[in-house]
Amino acid sequence: MSSSASAPAHHILKEACSAVGLDCDGAEPLRLAENQIWRLPGRRVIARISRAGQSDAAAREVRVARWLAQENLAAVRLVDVEQPVEIDGRPVTFWVELPPQQHGSVEDVAQLLAQLHSLPMPAINLGYLDPFVRVGERLHAATTIPDADKQWLHALHRDLAAAWAERPAGLPDRAVHGDAWPGNIVRTADGVLMMDLERFSVGPPEWDLVSTAVRAKTTGAVSAREYDRFCAVYGHDVTAWEGYPVLARARELRMVTYAAQHAARNAGWRSQAQYRIDCLRGRSGPRPWSWPGIL
Q: What's the rounded Cα separation, in Å, for the pair 92 and 85?
């Protein structure tokens, strides 16, 4: 990431707040990265400045948040202003600040996914799920992994994309979260709610279920007992579906390329990135493997 990408975007924040009638004097930066998160003073308002080129995604996220509010599904809520606001090509959105939170449980994830997938298809443009979003971009950025491994991952990407296009029939398409794991299903004093709505799309509900299944069957982060509870609460075991291996391997590929991309910027992650590649290539024994989280 260039230094300019993570420099404080004070002028963007100021102009965006001015456009919607909010005061940003004394705003506190919570995260300065490609996407910047700011807390506005005394208002319980969080401003999110997305990276350039994300205008469509920000507009979709706003549509999703409004739809979830109409359906009374517990999720992050928008501040009641006209948004998103675009300043210098960067979209800005405004959210009600959450109280202190912690990751949800596996059962919390199942509960909210069951509620989400029971909703009728929304009359908003969500686009169709792409399980390989940013995989090619991440591989391009993975400059520290051996060329032979990178070529193998590109080939796996092509094979899985073809298998995804020919996947067996499963549950009816629904609005799906796209990145459903306990970090995005959080628990506050007010209860459990859904956040990080940027990957919402239309697609197979199995994609949302695969995240937890992979954490049980691939990475070992979820115990067998926890996974049984997840299936009981949701009412379906995605691993029994014949299309599961394709979606699971797509999720694994995303996790590997995420690590590989970050390894190019942080030497401390290089051994973990290589270990994940070795696992996929059959060099580290059968699943489940132990993949610690990378933040």
A: 5
The C-alpha atoms of residue 161 and residue 283 are separated, in whole angstroms, by: 23
> For the domain bounded by 3-97, which CATH number is listed?
3.30.200.20
pLDDT tens, position by position, 230-275: 999 999 999 999 999 999 999 999 999 999 999 999 999 999 999 9
Contact 139, 150 (CB under 8 A): yes
Would you call 267 exposed, middle or buried from its count of C-beta atoms within 10 A (0-12, 13-18, 19+)?
Answer: exposed
pLDDT in tens, 70-119: 999 999 999 999 999 999 999 999 999 999 999 999 999 999 999 999 99
Stretch(es) of the chain classified as CATH 3.90.1200.10: 103-280
Confidence band of 179 (pLDDT split at 50, 70, 90): very high
Measure the CA angle with vertex 53, ends 48 and 57; round to 5°.
60
Q: How far is CA 168 from the centre of its chain?
A: 24
Confirm if 210 and 179 have CB atoms less than 8 A apart.
Answer: no
Decide yes or no: CATH 3.90.1200.10 for domain 103-280: yes
92 near 62, Cβ under 8 Å? Answer: no
Widest CA span in the chain = 58
pLDDT at residue 1, rounded to an integer: 42
Give the SS3 label for residue 205. Answer: coil
CA 245/CA 72 separation, integer angstroms? 34
HSE of 14, CA atoms in CB hemisphere, 13 A? 6
